[in-house]
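pasting for the record
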Amino acid sequence: MMSKLKRFALVSVFAGAAALAFGMSRPDETISGYSGEDEFVLAEMMGSPVDVHVTIAFPEEGKIVGQAPCNRYFTSQDAPLPWFQVGPIGATKMACENLDIEQQYFDLLSKATLAEIQGDQLLLSNDSQVLLSFMR
């Protein structure tokens, strides 16, 4: 009779092989490695449509850049897919009437722990809900 540990190891090996065979993400692949230089435009925050222009892009492994409602921003992201964790967010210091929306966006971006790309849509979520929804 096979022990639970041996059975788990065997299932893990088969699951890893199946993921590679079907072109699924490697455990060491981050969203920036997956999506390349695509730019996504924010469509919803917490399920509500947005009427300000916000972008996010992943120009190279471990880097995130974008345009928030008022400022350009940048941060790091090195967690393997499907995990998502940004580093400290840096931004230019321009003022505009949408600074409150920008701060809300940065707060939600910092709280995201999972990333999923479905066709042209990028979803950033935590364990309980989609926080940010983007379209390519």
